[in-house]
Amino acid sequence: MRKNKFLELQNGSDIRGVALPGVEGEEVNLTKLEAMRIGASFANWLTYKLNINPLNLKICVGQDPRLSGDELAEGLMRGIAYVGSQIEYAGLASTPAMFMSTVMPYYEFDGAVMITASHLPFNRNGFKFFTAGGGLDKEDVEQILKFASKINFQPDFPYEYEKVQLMDMYAATLRQMITNGLKRDLKGMHIVIDAGNGSGGFFATQVLQPLGADIRGSQFLEPDGHFPNHIPNPENKEAMASICQAVKDSGADLGIIFDTDVDRISAVDGKGQPISRNHIIALAAALAADDHPGGTVVTDSITSDELTDFLQGTLGLKHFRFKRGYRNVINKAADLQKAGEDAFLAIETSGHCAFSDNYFMDDGAFLAVNIIVAAAKIKKENGGDIRSLIADLSSPEEASEFRLNITDPEFAEKADQVLAAIEEFANSHEGYSVVSPNYEGIRVNFNLDGAKGWFLARKSLHDPVLPVNIESEKTGGVRKVADMLAQLLAGMEGIDEGPLK
Asked: What architecture (CATH level 2) is domain 169-390?
């Protein structure tokens, strides 16, 4: 692989690439050899970051069930061994558990690597890196990749590792959290888990079932890197429809759906209705609001005005709407905390959720435990449902996302031109007002013949795409704004306004 190609593996604070053939137009660029170089580079990075002799470094490696995981794990471990560091292999694991391996008593590894590509298709894979300070930032990952491109050694370099039963201890920790919260077990609770054939099946069989919960109706718990049933993604409509139906069919009190590596979730109430996107943010905030009076919730940029009303009006919290990208919201919350503000929750509509009292780790299992404890308390106290905690949250009448392809090869510059044109239009036409402060793209409030709402146009984090989100309190508002934007962009070269029509 050429040096400049290594940096193409960077995806924000993660590494992601094509690890298997089989998809037309997607050339394999993440193999065992790249993994070896990255493993060696991560160990070197830890040496300088922690000021520890590489021979004394202890690094843990785990993976989700992707088909390429075993080979990439072998490559990573060979690379780590090349530097002389000690390796412990967790096998099938979750992303939150891999972080916990750096802080959990007895383990306390110097670093950890999770092999995963979250919800992406079967042919993709990648790496997430951790120290006791949390996940690495994109600048750290860039350094690791730059150094990895300079490393050369034989692919058959020998290595040894110890097997560690990380998930058993992690599951025990989650069970303890539930019993501490309830002062009892989960008998009488019926909970459906959908693991999407990823790493999350353990939550049903090793956390809930041993505590006496009824897990009938749980589905796709068996790890399978083909992901044969639905995309393991709480944002996927088919996935959410599947677990909603499973909750209805089984008559459960609650449903939880994980993504592949268990760092994201959505929930389902006892009537089989989804608690996702703005609703999962509201629920996470409601669970911790009493412990953080007047605290701040940091979210991504596409959250609704109705969510702001709930957080500030009902819960008495502050809402800081920031940028897309889970590391962005986590880092902003951490920065606000350092400045003296109680920014206790960083959460995206995607289901990435990080609490300040859980190391600011985006941890789906941690949120699931808190939801389950609250649901069990509510059921015991009054026979109610977890939905009662967010009963005052309203929703827009309409909500749509349009993804406009940028065909100009200089897509970042073209996106800036489009955003400038939208801002100029909004500032010069009645019925539109640009929102300020705003930290990503252009957010505009509108009031068109009584149809009130907002829209946000922003650059995609990684692709030549301009996503446009529109929400309206009244039917027809989305169409009015979409038509306006389509007409505004019709004369511009290098951007396809077709999806707006």
From this structure: 3-Layer(aba) Sandwich (3.40)
